[in-house]
């Protein structure tokens, strides 16, 4: 018998009241990311952002990107930890436009699940708002979609889009990279948002509360550590050195991401003994019997961003980058494969 206390839509699996309650819970966090550029506030069909800043630039260029957290959402849902996913999607997106020199302006989110739980949605958005505030980026608009029959119970999707701004003359595109330039690795906080289909397979029968001998924290905590943003480090470095290239080590790891930035005439040598690979990666490699080559193609192995600078600026660049930054290799003339890890 139909529940006469519920609307027909709710009985079909979509609860509008739950969505509105989620909006109420997240509203304060969202507004905390607003600056004077945001016009009109929440609740409109589209977010309004003043473009007046563009008139102060010579040749302003907008840089945009969209991505998802991927199957890390499944791990987080199983652990009941959602706030980190909000930080994940914002910081991943910031890094993706940062590699071209862009400063973030505003971010938009899309959250989908078979059933909306207001507290979960509020937790996710709270994480997004925290990351946006730290970056000076407005969380300007978003969408929550309740889609029973499309997503299985317990699943969710976390997607985001970002728009940033850079002066055309300040775009970082790697074209000036030459043999002899040096590579600096900025430390990651863990797997970030990549390789989780493999991680889930490897850890399928492992208690996420288990602490392996080589680790100081439970494996679940290590793999759910939020994606780092490198905005602060890159801002500091750009004030004192010429950054020739930036490489965000996302899906494809070292082997697929580095060639996206360096000229086709160049290759790089990465010295893997120049930094200590975090133990979470070695646990995954051991349990999954994953080859060394595949590990460096799937994961960041403890290096979330690579910065390319000239040899004479290496020392100063390392100082500006701050704790954890390591000299990890160099650019060479192309001789065979574009990326060599030794």
Question: Mind explaining what this structure looks like?
Answer:
- The chain is of the alpha+beta class and 342 residues long.
- The mean pLDDT is 92.
- The N and C termini lie far apart (67 Å).
- The protein contains 12 helices and 12 strands.
- The protein is globular, with a radius of gyration of 22 Å.
- It has a 6-stranded mixed beta sheet with strand order 8-10-7-11-9-12.
Label this structure with key terms.
single chain, 342 residues, alpha+beta, 6-stranded mixed β-sheet, 4-stranded mixed β-sheet, 12 helices, 33% helix, 23% strand
What's the topology here?
Elements: H1 8-11, H2 16-31, E1 38-39, E2 48-49, E3 60-68, H3 72-79, H4 83-98, E4 103-113, H5 118-135, E5 138-146, E6 157-167, E7 182-187, H6 196-202, H7 219-223, H8 231-240, E8 245-248, H9 253-257, E9 266-270, H10 279-288, H11 292-298, E10 303-309, H12 314-321, E11 326-333, E12 339-341
Short description:
The chain is 33% helix and 23% strand. With 342 residues, it is of the alpha+beta class. Strand 4 (103-113), helix 5 (118-135) and strand 5 form a beta-alpha-beta unit.
Broad shape? globular
Radius of gyration: 22 Å
How are the strands ordered across the major sheet? 8-10-7-11-9-12
Number of beta strands: 12
What is the straight-line distance between the termini? Answer: 67 Å
* Biggest sheet record: 6 strands, mixed
* Relative helix content: 25-40%
- Beta percentage is 15-25%
Number of helices: 12
Overall mean pLDDT stands at 92
């Amino acid at each position: 018998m139909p529940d006469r206390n519920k609307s027909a839509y709710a009985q079909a699996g979509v609860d509008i009241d739950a969505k509105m309650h989620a909006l109420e819970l997240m509203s304060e966090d969202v507004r905390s990311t607003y600056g004077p550029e945001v016009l009109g506030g929440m609740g409109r069909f589209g977010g309004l952002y003043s473009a007046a800043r563009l008139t102060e630039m010579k040749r302003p260029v907008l840089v945009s990107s969209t991505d998802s957290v991927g199957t890390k959402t499944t791990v987080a849902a199983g652990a009941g930890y959602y706030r980190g996913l909000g930080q994940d999607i914002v910081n991943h997106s910031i890094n993706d436009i940062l590699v071209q020199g862009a400063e973030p302006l505003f971010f938009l989110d899309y959250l989908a699940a078979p059933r909306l739980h207001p507290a979960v949605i509020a937790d996710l958005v709270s994480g997004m708002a925290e990351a946006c505030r730290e970056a000076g980026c407005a969380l300007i608009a978003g969408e929550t979609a309740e889609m029973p029959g499309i997503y299985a119970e317990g699943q969710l999707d976390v997607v985001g889009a970002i728009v940033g701004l850079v002066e055309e003359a300040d775009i970082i595109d790697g074209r000036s990279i030459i043999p002899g330039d040096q590579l600096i690795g900025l430390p990651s906080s863990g797997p970030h948002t990549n390789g989780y289909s493999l991680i889930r397979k490897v850890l399928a029968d492992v208690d996420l509360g288990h602490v392996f001998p080589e680790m100081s924290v439970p494996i679940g905590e290590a793999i759910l550590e939020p994606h780092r943003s490198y905005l602060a480090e890159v801002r500091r470095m750009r004030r004192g050195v010429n950054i020739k290239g930036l490489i965000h080590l996302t899906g494809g790891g070292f082997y697929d991401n580095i060639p996206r930035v360096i000229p086709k005439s160049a290759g790089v040598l990465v010295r893997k003994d120049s930094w200590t690979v975090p133990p979470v990666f070695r646990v995954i490699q051991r349990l999954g019997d994953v080859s060394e080559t595949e590990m460096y193609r799937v994961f960041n192995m403890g290096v979330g961003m690579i910065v390319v600078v000239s040899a004479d600026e290496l020392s100063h660049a390392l100082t500006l980058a701050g704790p954890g930054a390591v000299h990890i290799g160099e650019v060479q003339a192309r001789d065979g494969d574009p990326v060599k890890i030794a």
